[in-house]
């Protein structure tokens, strides 16, 4: 499986409670689930939530720690990765976010907060190519997404796949190989025509 490592936005818009729980483990179908250290797969993923979801998660269990505008969950997803929830003021408005941070790196929560603020402060609403793919993966139901298996060449096995529908055909494609037209077709209408931005 191709591992992730960068701090990255995985969903456009504000996730409600149902969406939030789906996003917590959007890699549930991966092969050999939990047999290896999956920290790199989750660490750095972040998305926006509403205040109600932020406060709900704060009330579930006593947090591992609280530091100013953020708190970490006591229950770890992997050996070193756990959920960190943020309250931020961006362009004069209070907003709320969830991120998976690797606490073996002490600066991870602060670095993630910096990336979120920078990303959400863009003067023009836009999406990078990578954000489009991540949103599509996050928003696709489990029965239409999966991981490359034996029918793919060895170097692609374990990579993310999607069912793609075209005139008279249904094709299983690697997420990373979607064409611009296929990406546009899978995005919600309100996101299709956002300008593209190159990742920094």
Topology:
Blueprint: E1 8-15, H1 17-24, H2 39-42, E2 45-49, H3 51-60, E3 65-67, E4 70-76, E5 81-90, E6 93-102, H4 108-120, H5 129-139, E7 145-147, E8 160-166, E9 169-174, H6 180-186, H7 189-192
Parallel strand pairs: 1-2
Antiparallel strand pairs: 2-6, 3-4, 4-5, 5-6, 7-8, 8-9
Overview of the structural elements:
- The chain is of the alpha+beta class and 200 residues long.
- The chain has two domains: 8-120, no CATH class; 129-192, no CATH class.
- Helix content is 28%, strand content 30%.
- The chain has seven helices and nine strands, in the order βααβαββββααβββαα.
- The longest helix is centred in the middle third of the chain and has 13 residues, at 108-120.
- It is globular, with a radius of gyration of 17 Å.
- It starts with 7 loop residues before the first strand and ends in an 8-residue tail after the last helix.
Low-confidence stretches: none
Q: Main β-sheet, in a few words?
A: 6 strands, mixed
Q: How far is the first residue's CA from the last residue's CA?
A: 25 Å
Number of helices: 7
State the secondary-structure class: alpha+beta
Q: If strands are numbered along the chain, what order do they take across the biggest sheet?
A: 1-2-6-5-4-3
Mean pLDDT: 87
How many distinct beta strands? 9
Strand content: 25-35%
Summed up, the domain count is 2
Radius of gyration: 17 Å
- The proportion of residues forming helix, as a percent range, comes to 25-40%
How are helices and strands ordered from N to C?
EHHEHEEEEHHEEEHH
- Outline type: globular
């Amino acid at each position: 499986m191709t591992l992730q490592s960068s701090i990255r936005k995985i969903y456009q818009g504000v996730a409600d409670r149902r969406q939030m729980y789906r996003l917590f483990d959007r890699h549930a179908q991966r092969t050999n689930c939990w047999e290896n250290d999956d920290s790199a797969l989750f660490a750095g993923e972040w998305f926006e939530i509403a205040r109600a979801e932020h406060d709900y998660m704060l009330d579930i269990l006593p947090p591992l720690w609280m530091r100013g505008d953020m708190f970490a969950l006591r229950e770890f997803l992997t050996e070193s990765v756990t959920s960190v929830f943020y309250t931020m003021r961006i362009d004069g408005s209070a907003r709320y976010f969830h991120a998976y941070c690797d606490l073996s790196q002490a600066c991870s929560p602060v670095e993630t907060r910096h990336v979120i603020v920078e990303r959400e402060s863009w003067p023009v609403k836009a999406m990078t190519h990578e954000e489009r793919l991540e949103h599509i993966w996050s928003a696709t139901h489990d029965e239409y997404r999966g991981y490359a298996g034996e029918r793919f060449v060895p170097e692609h096995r374990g990579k993310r796949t999607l069912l793609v529908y075209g005139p008279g055909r249904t094709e299983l494609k690697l997420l990373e190989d979607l064409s611009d037209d296929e990406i546009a077709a899978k995005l919600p209408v309100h996101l299709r025509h956002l300008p593209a931005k190159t990742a920094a």
